[in-house]
Amino acid sequence: MYVCIYIYRVLSYINEAEASGASVLLDGRSWADKEAGFWIGPTIIMHEKSTDAAMQEEIFGPVLSVYYADSRDEAILIENSNPYGNAACIYTEKGSHAEWFIKRFRAGMLGVNIGIPVPREPFSFGGLYGTKSKYGDCDITADGAMEFFTNRIKITTKWSIPTAGTTTATSTTTTGSSDSVKRQKVMYEDKASFDGKM
Q1: What is the DSSP code (8-state) at residue 161?
Q2: What is the pTM of this model?
């Protein structure tokens, strides 16, 4: 029989919250009893205390924590006192409310009326510097994505005075006092090679 420690970790958050007075509105713990695979069903917890572990730590399971804050100041204090700073979002019909929170959230990815504000694939460096959600030296969006997904090539050139070679060019010279024009072919070597090969 295989045992998945991760399942018990997620279940412990639900059990501890319930033991501390939280209400489990949607309970997915029975899914863990399935014989085939390792499952936890969707779970919604209504918390009485913002200090519950499920409110403070990243669970990485299908668990949604709900808490009624008395004011927006309390809500932003709870959010910004959390040591993680990967993402934050607000649901509202009022733009002024959204703007107030967006200006105060301490997270790397912010959303309005969207639950997972991730504009790119959620790599481990999508969080905000100074939080436990930030690893690595760049972000997955904007310039950070360019750095991660591409190779930036720096090109430095210096052009030499042409010498005899394989490429032809025409130069025109005027001789003496006559109006006759003498055309002369000069061979130049093309020294520019930008195919990235040595």
Answers
A1: P
A2: 0.62
- Give the torsion through C-alpha atoms of 25, 49, 75, 133, to 10 deg: -90
Domains of the chain by residue range: 1-68, 71-159
Which helix (H) or strand (E) segment holds residue 75: the answer is helix 72-81
H or E element at residue 171: strand 167-174
Per-residue pLDDT in tens (0 to 9) along the chain, 198 residues: 455 788 899 999 999 999 999 999 999 999 988 878 788 999 999 999 999 999 999 898 999 999 999 999 999 999 999 888 878 888 999 999 999 999 999 888 888 998 777 665 555 456 676 777 765 666 666 677 777 777 776 777 677 676 665 554 444 555 555 455 555 555 555 555 555 554
